[in-house]
Amino acid sequence: ALPIFTAALALSSAFAAPASVTLSTPVHPERAAQIKEINAKQSTWTAAAHPRFAASPLGASKPLCGVNGDWVAEVERAVLTGEAERFISTSDAPIPDAFDSETNWPSCAKTIGDIRDQSNCGCCWAFAGAEAASDRMCIATGGKMLMPLAAQDVCFCASFDGCGGGQITTPWTFIKNKGSVTGGQYESSGPFGAGYCTDFTLPHCHHHGPVGNDPYPSEGAPGCASQSSPKCPRTCGANATGDHSTFAEDKYTFEGKMMTASGETEIKQMIMEGGPVETAFTVYSDFENYAGGVYSHTTGQPVGGHAVKFVGWGTDNGVKYWKVANSWNPYWGEKGYFRIKVGSPGGIDDSVTGSSTDATWKKKL
């Protein structure tokens, strides 16, 4: 029989989960040993077991790590070919110790705080891009264009196999050149509800981390099978209304450049001046056990590349961290977010992408 490992979820007060969230479940011996090692080695984050990976060996998160290849090299290629430009700050504003895009731009808080769910599909690259683009569009227009750009469109029209992975440059090139329709979450769930062109069509899933109050089936369980990419949508769904009901007339784009920044200072300036950005990092197997706190790679081997959205930063007991929105539903981690130590192994602050701060957002005619 597999050993039993019990871990309680302990989060900082800023990201508090329900006090009743605890977990006791059979765990694969490798995973039980890793969780014990993590919690013994450091105190900035909490590791815990959960049903999705309990009986699985380390590395079970690989199917969701959908960034293919070297994203830093891909961004460099885009710069060299003129597809992207390096960000240069035009502001002399000091960088604060803490910053949160959602509170800094309250008129766009609805989109910035929209934690989505990529289902059992490796299209993190499209989700992070569609989310950050929605945020930057809203911010650039002073809240006038507050709407979710569709991950369904970006994932399955910018790529023939979005679930098979992609790159963090692809969403921005696609939205700039082709435009993206609007679209909410699966079956019009989430803060925006119904009325947009194309909802994401793959089901909600419970992802890595303790189940807690997550009502969704775990990856691989009935209701959350491994997904293959559907065809690129060409028409809006039955829930679409008004201006968002005609696919060809619901495309939104920007005039300007795709920008990229590298390193702590440049990335913080790019976020302060224009909003959240897309980034990627190498997921190590210990991240599969993240339950809360400031993550820093502690043990385990690399699993794959994963794209996410930077929304801000701060300091916890002297440890500088990035606040990051994930696409594994709002029940995961710290209400859908995680915090990760600035400069962590895995390259999360090596290279980010986004639209230029002075980009002009509009309907694509």
How would you explain this protein's 3D organization?
The structure is a single chain. The protein is α+β, with helices and mostly antiparallel strands and 365 residues long. The chain has helices at residues 29-41, 51-54, 71-80, 101-104, 109-112, 124-140, 151-157, 170-177, 263-274; strands at residues 4-8, 22-26, 45-47, 84-86, 99-100, 252-255, 258-261, 277-284, 290-295, 302-316, 319-325, 337-341, 352-355, 360-363. Strands 3, 5, 8, 9, 10, 11 and 12 form a 7-stranded mixed β-sheet that branches. It has a 3-stranded mixed β-sheet with strand order 4-7-13. Strand 10 and strand 11 form a beta hairpin. Helix 6 packs across helix 7 (151-157) and helix 6 packs across helix 8 (170-177).
Give me the secondary-structure topology.
Layout: E1 4-8, E2 22-26, H1 29-41, E3 45-47, H2 51-54, H3 71-80, E4 84-86, E5 99-100, H4 101-104, H5 109-112, H6 124-140, H7 151-157, H8 170-177, E6 252-255, E7 258-261, H9 263-274, E8 277-284, E9 290-295, E10 302-316, E11 319-325, E12 337-341, E13 352-355, E14 360-363
Short description:
With 365 residues, the protein is α+β, with helices and mostly antiparallel strands. It has nine helices and 14 strands. The strands form four sheets. Strands 3, 5, 8, 9, 10, 11 and 12 form a seven-stranded mixed beta sheet that branches. A three-stranded mixed beta sheet has the order 4-7-13. Strands 1-2 form a two-stranded antiparallel ribbon.
